[in-house]
Design brief:
By secondary structure, this protein is an alpha/beta fold. The chain has one domain: 3-Layer(aba) Sandwich (Rossmann fold). It has ten helices and eight strands. Strands 1-2-4-3-5-6-7-8 form an eight-stranded mixed beta sheet, sandwiched between helices. The chain is globular and about 60 Å long.
């Protein structure tokens, strides 16, 4: 008799379903692309690096001002299953979005297992609050903030547009104008039950509390959900179920499955102004 752990998956299959690395032969080339193209963007554009938004070294941002005052702000939260990468690997899209008329912010946070997912969420909220309160510093408009993120960053982006926290930071409820969330993990129950929990240390209560699937957007907003064609069924279900819940809550939801991409190179499509992902994101930003 099969011992199902989640849905119709046993432990081995659940671990496979929650593995992004298992969908590609090697993540090293994409990680190198992130770092190289991010460095190139920093070299090419005016930017303010390692701006502190909190008291710890990890609580910092890289800021690329818009060319004109009152521009929308594109805030990107990196992935890495909450335990890898950095804002320094996450500015590769800056040229595309600055040229399109936006300010760009790459938000950094401390990594698991040195901190909990709950603390990572808190740090990202503090960083987003800094962006809101300092919008003019980057020629941005605080009423036109767009949150984006990939993988774990998709989860964190979902927690940024969730209701019930903005007042704790002196912000208006529902202040985020739009979002684009790539290959996100929106329901942490299967994550908590998988081998990923070896470094996340979630329990059933924290997995429920920290799931965007259970904390939908504070208000209806334009929302883009994207994933790669070769994602596992588990990852695709995460996006499809969250999209359905947000649509039922009144959000205008668009789903993009970018051809020819995988979990790791999908965000790199933001470097191409003509990619379907980029065009859709600029559309929900009003650009």
């Amino acid at each position: 008799m099969t011992d199902f752990v989640y849905r119709y998956w046993d432990q081995t299959e659940l671990n496979r379903q929650m593995s992004a690395r298992g969908t590609v032969p090697d993540i090293t080339p994409m990680m190198a692309d992130y770092a190289r193209e991010s460095a190139a963007a920093r070299a090419a554009l005016p930017c303010e690096l390692n701006v502190a938004y909190g008291p710890t070294p990890a609580e910092r941002l890289d800021v690329f001002p818009a060319t004109r005052p009152g521009s929308p702000i594109f805030v990107f939260i990196h992935g890495g299953y909450w335990r890898m990468l950095d804002a320094a690997d996450s500015t590769f899209m800056a040229r595309t979005f600055v040229e399109a008329g936006a300010a760009v912010v790459a938000l950094n946070y401390a990594l698991a297992p040195s901190v909990s997912v709950e603390e990572i969420v808190r740090q990202c909220r503090a960083g987003l609050a800094w962006v809101y309160k300092n919008a003019a510093r980057m020629n941005g408009d605080a009423s036109r903030i767009h949150v984006s993120g990939s993988s774990a960053g998709g989860h964190l982006g979902g927690m940024m547009i969730a209701g019930g926290w903005a007042g704790d930071y002196g912000l208006p409820e529902g202040f985020v104008q739009s979002a684009s969330l790539l290959s996100g993990l929106f329901d942490l129950e299967p994550v908590q039950l998988s081998n990923c929990n070896e470094w996340l240390h979630l329990d059933p209560d924290s997995a429920t509390r920290l799931s965007p699937q259970n904390r939908l957007p504070a208000r209806p907003l334009p929302l883009l959900i994207a994933y790669a064609p070769n994602e596992t069924e588990g990852f695709k279900l995460q996006s499809e179920c969250y999209a359905a819940a947000c649509r039922a809550a009144g959000c205008a939801v668009e789903i993009v499955c970018e051809p020819g991409t995988n979990h790791f190179d999908l965000p790199l499509r933001f470097m191409d102004a003509n990619a379907a992902l980029t065009k859709a994101t600029l559309g929900v930003m009003g650009l």
